[in-house]
Design the sequence.
């Protein structure tokens, strides 16, 4: 064995390093990797596909169960009313005057628990009858109030006795426009000649929250045909018309069909991104086993190369690491006629000349750079330490006030949002975040403030999709939103709005934060405008609006003082802050651009 290795040593010494690496790459790296990766890929892809199908099937079944349970309760109540003679007699009776009807109405409702039962399940029921002696109002109305609604027209068009309808603006008054979920049942068990109906309206927002509270990572869409009725994602806004499906939206999604009271619904469960990587982690034992199998043969072949040049390459690599130190280390071995020996000799000549340069020029330059970087880091740490208590105090104050005034368990939801905010405060390893991440933080903050102010606070956020991946300093936008909330909405007794708009301009980004709060005088506007444009580290030491100045300082630092600030407003009307950030062209700077992708 030893004699055979010696002959291989002599044979390999006749090849150039380039040919040796070609042989090593093909035999020991390329072929094993192709075989191993092919097996791993095919195996992992198979298991990943089966696992995702199973998970999405379970999610679809759970969503079906939740919907069936909620709507099934309405059906059971409808069947109880359908066969209840007391309801039939109350709706069919001819009343001589309004007083007689009102007395009968109050006596009838006082003897039933249906209203309480429906209220506990986020449902509102209304009875309709073709009896012109009743008085419209409360839980009973004449049929005229129902005839022009979409659900009534669909039920009679399809000639059904009951049905479930998802409609947009099913209100006869047409005053409000919103999504509605209606269960409508004809009450003709005793008398088929007089039209009588039971309408149960579900709380659309509660249905969306039930799906979202399942906390699935997968996006779930519940559709009727190509209409998206319910979703735990971006399609659950009850104030807009139902959106339509396209093929791209449900590509690779799991499909499950159900029928509820004659309405055919399809549940789509979209796969989670990067699930393939998760599958690879799950199959790690198999991958490790394949790697071990592919290491034994390459290791034996590497031993042959090692006797020819690997030892010298390793030694050369070790001395190359001294490049990071203050003094380069020469290599003693210069024997041999191949390329490695020539490289060692050239390296030693370079060491001799470079060591002199390090002592005279480079070493002093490094010291200057270290001092500059240390100063910048100290300034950023000082800014970070000021932001943390400023925001945390306001959030905790909101939770405290809510707990004292409301005395309810919604505090758990507030603490959840606080966790999102607190995570932003403590993770200062990278001061830059995407606009998408910053906007998520803004939403969490405004949701917390919504608990505090209730109907006094409303907000709307508009972000161009092409701007979501741009980077900005952490807590920049939320600082101005917090200022608008505390100094604008808090001091105003009537309801107010906060608008956040982010768009791409020709030469950069434009961020606009507007509130309809109490506003400011011209003098205060001018002072705030001056402070923002001239924000500096020294100004932070004087106190005042630390958060605004802090955000302006960091924006000016990362844009080399090219960020622009504009404040407009009117006392009693509101305030608008506009921030314009320049876009640096790709490759123009060696630092990370504030708005680079």
Sequence:
């Amino acid at each position: 064995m030893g004699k055979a290795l010696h002959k291989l040593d002599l044979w390999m010494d006749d090849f150039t390093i380039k040919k040796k690496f070609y042989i090593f790459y093909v035999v020991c790296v390329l072929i094993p990797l192709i075989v191993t990766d092919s097996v791993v890929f095919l195996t992992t892809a198979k298991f990943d596909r089966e696992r995702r199908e199973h998970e999405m099937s379970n999610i679809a079944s759970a969503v079906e169960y939740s919907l069936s349970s909620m709507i099934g309760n309405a059906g059971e109540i409808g069947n109880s009313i359908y066969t209840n003679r007391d309801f039939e007699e109350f709706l069919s009776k001819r009343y001589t005057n309004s007083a007689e009807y009102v007395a009968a109405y109050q006596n009838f409702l006082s003897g039933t628990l249906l209203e309480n039962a429906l209220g506990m399940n986020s449902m509102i029921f209304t009875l309709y009858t073709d009896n012109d002696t009743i008085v419209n109002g409360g839980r009973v109305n004449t049929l005229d109030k129902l005839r022009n609604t979409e659900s009534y027209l669909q039920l009679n068009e399809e000639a059904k006795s009951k049905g479930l309808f998802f409609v947009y603006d099913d209100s006869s008054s047409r005053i409000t426009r919103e999504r509605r979920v209606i269960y409508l049942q004809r009450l003709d068990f005793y008398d088929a000649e007089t039209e009588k109906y039971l309408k149960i309206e579900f709380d659309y927002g509660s249905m969306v929250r039930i799906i979202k509270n399942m906390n699935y990572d997968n996006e779930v869409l519940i559709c009727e045909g190509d209409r998206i009725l319910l979703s735990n994602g971006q399609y659950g806004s009850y104030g807009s018309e139902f959106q339509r499906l396209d093929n791209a939206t449900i590509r690779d999604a799991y499909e499950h069909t159900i029928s509820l009271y004659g309405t055919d619904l399809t549940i789509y469960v979209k796969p989670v991104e990067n699930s393939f990587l998760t599958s690879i982690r799950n199959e790690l034992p198999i991958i490790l086993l394949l790697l071990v199998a592919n290491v034994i043969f390459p290791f034996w072949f590497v031993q042959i190369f090692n006797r020819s040049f690997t030892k010298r390459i390793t030694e050369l690599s070790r001395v190359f690491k001294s490049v990071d130190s203050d003094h380069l280390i020469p290599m003693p071995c210069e024997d041999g006629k191949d390329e490695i020996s020539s490289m060692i000799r050239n390296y030693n000549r370079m060491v001799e000349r470079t060591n002199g340069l390090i002592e005279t020029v480079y070493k002093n330059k490094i010291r200057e750079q270290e001092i500059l970087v240390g100063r910048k880091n100290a300034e950023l740490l000082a800014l970070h330490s000021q932001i943390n208590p400023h925001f945390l105090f306001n959030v905790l104050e909101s939770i405290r006030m809510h707990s004292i005034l409301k005395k309810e368990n919604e505090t758990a939801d507030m603490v959840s949002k606080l966790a999102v905010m607190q995570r932003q405060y403590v993770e200062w390893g990278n001061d830059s975040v995407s606009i998408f991440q910053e906007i998520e933080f803004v939403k969490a903050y405004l949701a917390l403030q919504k608990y505090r102010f209730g109907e006094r606070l409303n907000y709307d956020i508009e972000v161009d999709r092409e701007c979501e991946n741009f980077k900005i300093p952490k807590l920049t936008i939320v600082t101005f939103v917090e200022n608008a909330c505390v100094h604008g909405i808090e001091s105003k007794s009537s309801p107010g709005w906060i608008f956040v708009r982010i768009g791409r301009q020709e030469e950069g980004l434009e961020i606009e934060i507007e509130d309809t709060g109490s506003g400011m005088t011209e003098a205060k506007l001018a002072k705030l405008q001056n402070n923002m444009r001239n924000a500096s580290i020294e100004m932070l030491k004087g106190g005042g609006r630390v958060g605004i100045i802090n955000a302006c300082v960091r924006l000016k630092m990362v844009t080399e003082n090219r960020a622009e600030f504009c404040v407009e407003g009117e006392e009693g009307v509101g305030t608008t802050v506009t921030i314009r950030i320049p876009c640096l062209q790709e490759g123009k700077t060696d630092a990370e651009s504030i708005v680079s992708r």
About this structure: The chain is about 55% helix and 20% strand. The first helix runs from residue 2 to 12. The radius of gyration is 36 Å.
